[in-house]
Amino acid sequence: MSSIEGGTLYIGVTENPPWIIRQDQQPRGLEADLLNAFADTLNATVEWQWGSENELLQALKHHQLDIVAGGLTSNTRISQLAAATRPFYTTQHTLGFKAEETQTQRASPPPLQQSDVALPRLNTVYQAIEELGATPVISANPERTQGWVAGPTWWLKAHGFTVTSHTLAKEKHVMALPKGENALMLALQRHLHQSGSLETHLQRLEAAQ
Known about the structure:
The structure is a single chain. The strands form 4 sheets. The chain has a 5-stranded mixed beta sheet with strand order 9-8-10-7-11. It starts with 7 loop residues before the first strand and ends with a helix. It has 2 domains: 8-88 and 174-207, D-Maltodextrin-Binding Protein, domain 2 (3-Layer(aba) Sandwich); 92-170, 3-Layer(aba) Sandwich (D-Maltodextrin-Binding Protein, domain 2). It has helices at 30-41, 53-61, 76-81, 126-131, 153-158, 182-193, 198-207, and strands spanning 8-13, 21-23, 26-28, 45-50, 67-69, 83-84, 89-98, 116-119, 135-138, 147-152, 162-173, 176-177. The radius of gyration is 19 Å and the shape is elongated. The longest helix is centred in the first third of the chain and has 12 residues, at 30-41. A hairpin with a 2-residue loop joins strand 2 (21-23) and strand 3. It is of the alpha/beta class.
């Protein structure tokens, strides 16, 4: 920790919008913003290293990096190779609805059972939708859906969907550090949990895409 304060923070990142967005070889996005602000608290500069999640975690295991970020969620693999922060944000995947509004009234959603629900090809909620009696339909552009759609709450709000109470899945977001870096871990966790409204930040980033 003492070597980082006033020095260099080596951070590995993997592209995963809106957590980490690659723009002209520089990372932006929610976690890039959080980590730049964290580096400022240490009066440290940041040296970013791009790579796949596996490459970065292997480098972290051998203390070649200080932090790895990129929309990581709690899982056994991370705990085998590194030390994960406490979850700093939980993504709730749920159902949203959007319909054309008339001049006299706002359209109400049809019954969910036997309705189509649009969702992206890469998802974790296909089975949960089926268990609700609905039909999951893979869509290349679910944000253009008029009707039912599945997604994170921040994504739904950013695209103008009304969020419902149907929680389909939850993902707990973490960052990874080398095992044994207790002082850096405590400082980073304190910074992450003192950050402002991450839901609002995610909505702004998604809406800007």
